[in-house]
């Protein structure tokens, strides 16, 4: 007799939110020449963070501090909040999982955009939540529609990424501030700012950290180039932050990662360099798109979404052609955004590989 | 208005399973001279693992492989199972949390020993499970009583650590094999073998990896000295292993930790050295106890539980006296085991600090 799973677990499908590039590499029997599919930051962590993590390797016999005290102090000071407003966790993915667990019982309504972050959806479904999806407005998430639907279905939770993934679009701070003011009583806005370091000044809203209507997420995976370290944080009212302590894996943080994140925060100059390199990579990706008769969408992230100009089937062919030439990229899952492919910013050699692969893939896709 | 938490979350207390040593250090305003309280392995990771993690620091811009493919292959080969029998996760703590989520709905019965691993209890309570605790038999967990109670309450899950924490005691393989044969239909035995590398040959039971009645947990935190890295695994029937994929944080593993664990597995000579060093530390701790008129209990782990010879109040005074002298140790939480203090094996300098602190703490406790 099998173990007796919960009724919810029995009902869950055996899907995964994303297939990793290593899985593709094993299938094709060779590593990728360029890794531009997961919005990893190929410019890498700050040398200070690398040195700190490297030096911390011998000390990995010790558990990490379960309170993440030093990291929370530093984050709080930078964000202008108190440490009681900060929760540190195993990536935004890990924190979204905890948040879903805190709020969502079977049947509880949750609102997101159709085509937004699949891992959010995975966690909501994993706790039995019911997802209500509103369409994007063109290539932008639609705050007004999200709020409207949230009222309609009495949503416990609303998800918005600003800047957005997978389209790279963004709203200004004032749009988000207006949205927050309209969050219905008893709803919580999960504002995913994973890409905020790449966005223009004036994108991050001003939020009262005691506002019970919103929790904002930041990560070391993108701007700080430390996706493999698994460190992110959220800022919210102390009551909500304290609730995470009821359910989280208290000793779940990698000790070297804690130390590396702290070092990364102390190297603003490197972050600025990274942002400048990403801007140059965007210009290059825009040029590559144009050379191939395609249009790159404006981006406030570390990736560029390129409109392949036809439908999803065509873009999937282009993607397959790029991938089989050793360049790992991904694309939006949902129409009409699946007319696009999504390419992460990265060092020149990686973009060269993409530049070489794209025209061949396009020619093939065009038959 | 606050976010609307689940009814279960509203009912959960704001407790944490363990307070980290860093919290004590902040309270006392100084770091500990010796860190012997969390059964960390002060002999540290294999130099190969340190080198591998250090070298992987620059590559932390990449997410870890969500399938943990290489690590699972190697673990499977060593354990004589297939990769489909292996799940890798963020420490045994992380895996126990996933297991609780897979099996436990509100009100579901779970059986453990009174005084066994608090983090298991934390996860069960966190999913609304009802814990039924059976007493130890002296200083040993009582497999017969666990099975009996599991039948009585129709337990979905049974927890047993072998070797045991916090008492350091153990049962032979044949006792565990007999226990597994008696696991009731529809119950699952969670066999926590965190300390197995330190146990005498003949402690690890032979288990059919397709047996649906048992899941065994192993970790890199103890024998391999990598607690801060957060890598553990479980071996179970493929159906149960596949169920973890429905709920786990697929990109939750630190990439350098994956690489370090793989390197650690390839250094059996270092593991053997560690085990020998721990045995020598045990001899030293036994001698320290004897010099102070106390009895050290036999141990198949990397810690020694020392009977202070009186009641819990006395042992708590001894512990406080040791801790205030800069030596981090812990003690069992539950009577009658709280007559003991628990001291991790460690390098000589750390044991020297304990040897210096103990007689003073004892004198103070005796008034």
UniProtKB/TrEMBL annotation, chains A, B:
<dbReference type="Pfam" id="PF00155">
    <property type="entry name" value="Aminotran_1_2"/>
</dbReference>
<dbReference type="GO" id="GO:0008483">
    <property type="term" value="F:transaminase activity"/>
</dbReference>
<keyword id="KW-0663">Pyridoxal phosphate</keyword>
<feature type="domain" description="Aminotransferase class I/classII large">
    <location>
        <begin position="36"/>
        <end position="358"/>
    </location>
</feature>
<comment type="pathway">
    <text>Amino-acid biosynthesis.</text>
</comment>
<keyword id="KW-0808">Transferase</keyword>
<protein>
    <submittedName>
        <fullName>Pyridoxal phosphate-dependent aminotransferase</fullName>
    </submittedName>
</protein>
<dbReference type="InterPro" id="IPR015422">
    <property type="entry name" value="PyrdxlP-dep_Trfase_small"/>
</dbReference>
<comment type="similarity">
    <text>Belongs to the class-II pyridoxal-phosphate-dependent aminotransferase family. Histidinol-phosphate aminotransferase subfamily.</text>
</comment>
<dbReference type="InterPro" id="IPR015424">
    <property type="entry name" value="PyrdxlP-dep_Trfase"/>
</dbReference>
<dbReference type="InterPro" id="IPR050106">
    <property type="entry name" value="HistidinolP_aminotransfase"/>
</dbReference>
<dbReference type="InterPro" id="IPR004839">
    <property type="entry name" value="Aminotransferase_I/II_large"/>
</dbReference>
<dbReference type="InterPro" id="IPR001917">
    <property type="entry name" value="Aminotrans_II_pyridoxalP_BS"/>
</dbReference>
<dbReference type="InterPro" id="IPR015421">
    <property type="entry name" value="PyrdxlP-dep_Trfase_major"/>
</dbReference>
<keyword id="KW-0032">Aminotransferase</keyword>
């Amino acid at each position: 007799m099998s173990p007796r799973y919960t009724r919810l677990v029995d009902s869950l499908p055996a899907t995964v939110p994303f297939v990793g590039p290593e899985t593709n590499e094993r299938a094709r029997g060779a590593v990728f020449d360029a890794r531009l599919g997961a919005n990893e930051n190929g410019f890498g962590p700050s040398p200070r963070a690398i040195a700190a993590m490297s030096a911390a390797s011998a000390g990995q016999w010790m558990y990490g501090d379960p309170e993440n005290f030093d990291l929370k102090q530093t984050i709080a000071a930078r964000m202008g909040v108190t440490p009681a407003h900060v929760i540190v966790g195993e990536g935004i993915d890990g924190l979204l999982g905890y948040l879903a667990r805190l709020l969502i019982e079977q049947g509880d309504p949750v609102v997101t955009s159709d085509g937004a972050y699949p891992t959010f959806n995975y966690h909501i479904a994993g706790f039995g939540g019911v997802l209500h999806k509103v369409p994007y407005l063109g290539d932008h998430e639609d705050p007004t529609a999200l709020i409207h639907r949230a009222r309609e279905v009495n949503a416990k939770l609303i998800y918005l990424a600003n800047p957005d993934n997978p389209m790279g679009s963004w709203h200004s701070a004032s749009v988000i501030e207006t949205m927050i003011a309209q969050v219905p009583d008893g709803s919580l806005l999960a504002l995913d700012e994973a890409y905020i370091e790449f966005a223009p000044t004036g994108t991050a809203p001003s939020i009262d950290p005691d506002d019970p209507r919103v929790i904002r997420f930041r990560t070391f995976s993108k701007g700080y180039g430390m996706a493999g370290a698994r460190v992110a944080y959220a800022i919210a009212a102390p009551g909500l932050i304290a609730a995470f302590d009821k359910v989280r894996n208290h000793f779940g943080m990698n000790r070297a990662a804690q130390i590396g994140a702290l070092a990364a925060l102390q190297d603003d100059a490197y972050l600025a360099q990274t942002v400048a390199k990403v801007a140059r990579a965007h210009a290059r990706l825009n040029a590559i798109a144009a050379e191939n008769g395609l249009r790159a969408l404006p981006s406030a992230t570390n990736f560029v979404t390129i409109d392949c100009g036809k439908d999803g089937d065509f873009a999937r062919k282009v993607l397959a052609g790029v991938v089989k030439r050793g360049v790992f990229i991904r694309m939006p899952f949902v129409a009409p955004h699946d007319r696009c492919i999504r390419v992460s910013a990265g060092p020149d050699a990686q973009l060269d590989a993409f530049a070489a692969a794209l025209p061949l893939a396009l020619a093939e896709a065009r038959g």
